[in-house]
Amino acid sequence: MIREFRPGDEAAVYDICLRTGASGEDATHLITDPELLGHVYAGAYMKLCPGFASVVEEEGDVLGYILGAPDTRAFEARCEAEWWPPLRERYPDPGKPATTDERLMYAIHHFHPAPDEIVASHPSHLHIDLLPSTQGKGYGRRLMDRLREQLRRAGSPGIHLGVSPENRRAVGFYRALGFTVLAENEHVVWMGETL
Q1: Among residues 108, 181, 193, which one has the least CA distance to residue 156?
Q2: The N-acetyltransferase domain covers which part of the protein (predicted)?
Q3: Which of 69, 97, 140, 167 could form a disulfide with 23 if both were Cys (CB 3.0 to 4.6 A apart)?
């Protein structure tokens, strides 16, 4: 079933983030600190935008999630004020990152905002991850439909996301849902949809 995020789901969301963190594949073997991916890509949404977070639950286990922010610029500002400072105290800036852990620590200190040209027309954004055992059951589409409706009710005209060009399966999934490529470079494909 799909349900709204509840306090207590954080550990499961962090675990899913790690187990899908290598372009959709398990990143457990790539990272020493298992919380880092969750800190960078999931935690702030659960703390700052819990009303736009939903999870997939089967037999009491959380197996997937969608996390959204209705106003990307407001979310980025709140992260800068509330989310990143304690993490920056906990994790030193590695300077020139060499490992996956160091790249994530670098991201904590040098967060890159979404491009202005994308946010102007697609001000909301999302992250979605499903464990392999949950994929192919329609949960991804249902999670997306649920978040789209929440964002429409909040008055958003459009939604975007960034995906690794290496994650071809995800790019295909978003295209099948009606997302189009807004911009891309060697690191990220920005995709969006008008709501």
Answers
A1: 193
A2: 1-195
A3: 167
